[in-house]
């Protein structure tokens, strides 16, 4: 959707913020090499189904194992 006002063009945008799925160990949630638990893998799969028909222009992500598994 485009909106024109006083010589400016405004475009409607959507922003999705997603956190990684559940990690294997709740003892060290900040460990960057920590992978997803089986439940976290299910969470990421469900999220993937919800986002299946959305076209993203840009994606920003960290490079941690759990984030890559979620993506």
Strand proportion, as a percent range, falls in 5-15%
Question: Overall mean pLDDT score?
Answer: 83
Helix-strand sequence? EEHH
User: What is the strand tally?
Assistant: 2
- Measured between the Cα atoms of the first and last residue, the distance is 28 Å
Query: Poorly predicted ranges (pLDDT <50, ≥5 residues)?
Result: none
Structural class: alpha+beta
Rg over alpha carbons: 17 Å
Binned, the helix content reads 25-40%
Q: How are strands sequenced across the largest beta sheet?
A: 1-2
Q: Which word captures the global form?
A: elongated
* Largest sheet: number of strands, sense, barrel closure: 2 strands, antiparallel
- Report the oligomer: single chain
Overall description:
The protein is of the alpha+beta class and 71 residues long. It contains 2 helices and 2 strands, in the order ββαα. The protein has a two-stranded antiparallel sheet with strand order 1-2. A hairpin with a 2-residue loop joins strand 1 and strand 2. The protein starts with a strand and ends with a helix. The relative contact order is 0.21.
Short description, anyone?
With 71 residues, this protein is of the alpha+beta class.
Question: What layout of secondary structure does this protein have?
Answer:
Elements (H helix, E strand, L loop, with lengths): L1 E4 L2 E4 L26 H13 L14 H6 L1
Antiparallel strand pairs: 1-2
